[in-house]
Amino acid sequence: MLNFIWAGFFVAAFAAAVWRSLWLGDTAVWSSLANAVFDSAGSAFRLSLGLTGVLCLWLGLLKIAETAGLTALLARLMRPLFRRIFPSVPDNHPALGAMLMNIAANMLGLDNAATPMGLKAMEELQKLNPTRQTASAAQQLFMVINASAVTVIPITILMYRAELGATDPAAVFVPILLATSVSTLVGFLSMAWVQKLPIFHPVVWAYLLGFAVVVGGLGWYFAALPPAARVGAVSACGNFVLFAVMVGFIIAGLCRRIDVYGCFTDGAKEGFSVAVKIIPYLVAMLTAIAALRVSGLLDLAVEGIAAAAAEFGLNTDFAAALPTALLKPLSGSGARAMMIETMQTYGADSFQGFAAAVVQGSTETTFYVLAVYFGAVGIIKAGAALPCALLADFVGMIAALWLSYIFY
């Protein structure tokens, strides 16, 4: 499927550029396309190098956690659930602890920690994969959970709203939490249906309800704070958790009388090789996405959706948030730029700016996650992971727009 999607991006971009140059007289589109493709290739390389330091840091800390037995402890805590949704992964396998830490980091908005932990989990899962270039069932489910990850603390979005003058920057907090929860639930249930997982088992529901209570409790706590204090509290909480995890790993290693420095450097050595592995996959995906974006095809899609909504007599204020929604599965930086542009154009306190922020926080960047996570272990056949992740993206986008009308 990736083969056809990647080629389809280039073919669709070429067709849209032909239409713009012949029917609209925009011959400059060809130079824009060429520049975008070459620039994105360079950006992919720089992005991979930029990840190297973060990967070294967290893979080193994860090595300490693994040697100290923390990942095994986490795996035991989640064993009843993971035994049912990841039946191919043995009990106490290192992948289970890494997956749990990745999910927790995503929930807390700790992107710098989530990606290295996710890559570590994917590498451990690859050791169990009998078909090296085709994603296993466990890898597919893990990828979908990442591509639609629940984010309890969307600190980046709140900070942008604050910088752009929003009266209450954290007003989008609750709708983002609800939208991203819906997206994750749809992604998980769709993969569970494809893989015929026993999701109606009481143990599975008990864990899901427990997660819902934790997410709801955190959401309620931050929503109950005074608006003026909410952004600072969210930022402080996220950074506190981030550093506390680092120190916690080191203290656990010292308590087990481990050479934490030597253990850290051994784990950090893996970071460079992982960063190099993902370069070809990032170049392939980001160049195709850049061509699709610059061709103007997304603009045509936005105009078509807005026109269709107007024909049915629907309110079309949401159309200004559609560029963010359409770019989000393709490019995180592109979607963020569109969100900022929407808030700058209409105002951070406008409905359009509000909706763009909620959409931005509703899902993850699916194609980037796929390129990085599967590329790191050499997987080129994603199976059902991509359609299920895109379904989660679509439902998350619809939920985000609907919730924006309710909460604005």
3D structure, described in words:
There is one protein chain. The chain is mainly alpha-helical. The chain has one domain. Helices cover 78% and strands 0% of the residues. The chain is built from 19 helices and no strands.
Describe the global form: globular
Q: Strand pairing plus helix content: what structural class?
A: mainly alpha
Number of domains: 1
DSSP, total strands: 0
Low-confidence stretches: none
Tally of separate helices:
19
Compute the average pLDDT.
82
Cα-atom radius of gyration: 21 Å
What's the helical proportion of residues?
Answer: over 70%
- SSE string, helices as H and strands as E: HHHHHHHHHHHHHHHHHHH
Proportion of residues in extended strands: under 5%
Instruction: State the separation between the terminal residues, measured CA to CA.
Output: 39 Å
Give a brief description.
The protein has 19 helices and no strands. The chain has helices at 2-23, 29-68, 70-77, 79-85, 94-107, 111-126, 137-147, 155-163, 173-195, 202-224, 227-255, 260-277, 279-294, 297-311, 322-327, 332-346, 351-362, 366-375, 385-407.
Notable traits:
mainly alpha; 78% helix; 408 residues; 19 helices
Q: Any chance you could write out the topology, listing elements then pairs?
A:
Blueprint: H1 2-23, H2 29-68, H3 70-77, H4 79-85, H5 94-107, H6 111-126, H7 137-147, H8 155-163, H9 173-195, H10 202-224, H11 227-255, H12 260-277, H13 279-294, H14 297-311, H15 322-327, H16 332-346, H17 351-362, H18 366-375, H19 385-407
Helix pairs in contact: 1-13, 2-6, 2-11, 2-12, 2-13, 3-5, 5-6, 6-7, 7-9, 7-18, 7-19, 8-11, 9-17, 9-19, 13-18, 16-17, 17-19
